[in-house]
Amino acid sequence: MAKDTASATQKQSFEEFCHQAFDPTKEFSKPEALKGVRVLSCTQYILGPSCASYLAELGAEVIKIEAPRRGEAMRHTTPFNEPFLYPLSRWVPERGTGLGFLGANPNEYFISVDFHRPEGQAIVKKLAAKSDVMVENYRPGTFDRWGIGYRQMKEINPRLVYCWLGGFGGWGPGRVRASYDILGQSQGGNFGMTGKQEFLGGAPSKHTIWLADYWGGMMGAVQILAALYWRDKVSGEGTFTEYSQVHGVTRQLEYALPLYGRHGITRQRWGNWDTQLCVHGIIKCGKSSYPGSENPQESEEGYILISAYTDEDFARLCKVVGDVKMAEKYAKTENRVKAQSQMEIYPWLEKWAADKTKEQVAEIMDKANINNQPVWNAKEVANHPHWVQRGAVRWLDDPTFGELLHQGPAYKMSATPPRLKWALKPVGADNELILGKLAGLSTEELRRLEEQECI
Ligand SMILES: CC(C)(COP(=O)(O)OP(=O)(O)OC[C@H]1O[C@@H](n2cnc3c(N)ncnc32)[C@H](O)[C@@H]1OP(=O)(O)O)[C@@H](O)C(=O)NCCC(=O)NCCS
Predict the structure, then answer these.
(1) Ligand 1 binding pocket mutation candidate from 110, 138, 214, 431 (most atoms within 8 A of CB)
(2) Are 135 and 199 in a shared domain?
């Protein structure tokens, strides 16, 4: 047997083995890791929804509960909410769902319940009694005030894992304010380090994507999986977990806190360069890759990252640029990394790249074995054969909306691959299916509650 395995290993390259193990075309023929786990997702915006959707990608039955008819706030927060694109609900035919909603709610069942109304609260309790997990990201204590928070739910279902994601945590003097991704990144310390220095014409800079929300959602999912393990393998009981969006950002500050604590040094902004490594940053290439394009992002000059921070790599970089003087002057990393040095080195590289596109620079760097990567936009990402073949970017035949280009789950599992089934649904699309099956509502009761806008 061992001999057979050894010879199979020899015949198959590691690449073939990985391709076979993680082949995206085989995803649907394999089991799902979280099948049988039921999650109530009482979530809004991105932080809570992304948390629940990471579990849905792994096969959990995630039931998203939104306000009747209108749905949750994120459907209305971003533009492109034309009804012909992604209709909001059958009750509001003139409205659509904003694009920001996409990407944070795949694979879920969509029902609507008014949390204010006693009948609505009774429905949520019935669902919680049959669920493993409940996730919410409202203000601290909102669900408790409505009588459907952890303290009430644990009486109904002691095995429930309740994950509350918020801004500042449920206790402490700074807990009561509203929070969003941008606030989390601001208070947590991120924006103090992103963007250029003022003397270089810069200011603190926000990231275009909602990084703290999507990262926070992932941290919430980690908490939930640990709590399920604890319940199923150790205690037999559910638990209450809390995730603070601000604290989650602080957790990512790398060495900024130890640096401050031991040396009193505040980590600075340094834009597209790096405070510890040089060359290790993004430079501008003078020529556009798409000079005729009407898309402003394409007609502008290209950008490329170059990483040549070891003394050997920097020497090769100087050879490529044809500059012996710079090679001698900055031969040692401790000289290169100084702020003044970087302010000479990066403009020097940009001068050299001024008559080139990012692809031309990449070709030259590749030949010299210098690590580089042109900065890509979404269109370039979507069309790269490597990521298309691996299913990182894929065309989805969405059961409700037809063909959609979508990102696939971010990681692969050979035995139980995460997968993308559908991208989103209108508000209340699964009222009948879920509330009939799990809350025991008859068709007549469903109609009445819908008419009364309770669901
Ligand atoms: C996002 C946030 C600022 C919104 O604040 P808010 O709307 O003022 O307050 P809550 O979140 O507690 O939501 C309560 C409101 O939700 C509304 N609501 C949403 N869904 C509802 C439903 N299904 N049924 C009834 N009411 C609903 C109600 O209007 C309710 O207001 P009310 O209690 O006065 O009637 C706040 O929830 C927050 O800070 N959350 C934590 C951080 C976070 O996740 N931020 C978003 C991600 S960036």
Answers:
(1) 138
(2) yes
User: Which of these three, 331, 350, 375, is where a domain ends?
Assistant: 375
Domain CATH for 346:
3.30.1540.10
The reply to whether ligand 1 has any atom less than 6 angstroms from the CB of 47 is: yes
CA distances from 319 to 221, 325, 336, 365 (A): 48, 10, 16, 11
386-402 pLDDT per residue, tens: 999 999 999 999 999 99
The answer on 417 and 299 residing in a single domain is: no
Quick check: CB of 304 below 6 Å from ligand 1? no
- The residue type of 148 is I
pLDDT tens profile 365-385: 999 999 999 999 999 999 999
Nearest CA residue ID for atom 26, ligand 1 = 115
Q: Look at residue 325 in the predicted model and tell me its pLDDT.
A: 94
Instruction: Give the domain-ending residue among 331, 351, 375.
Output: 375
Question: Tell me, what's the pLDDT at 120?
Answer: 98
Q: Does the beta carbon of 67 lie inside 6 Å of ligand 1?
A: yes
- The sign of the CA dihedral 438, 439, 441, 447 is negative
> C-alpha angle 115/116/120, rounded to 5°?
50
Cα 237 to ligand 1 centroid, rounded to whole Å: 28
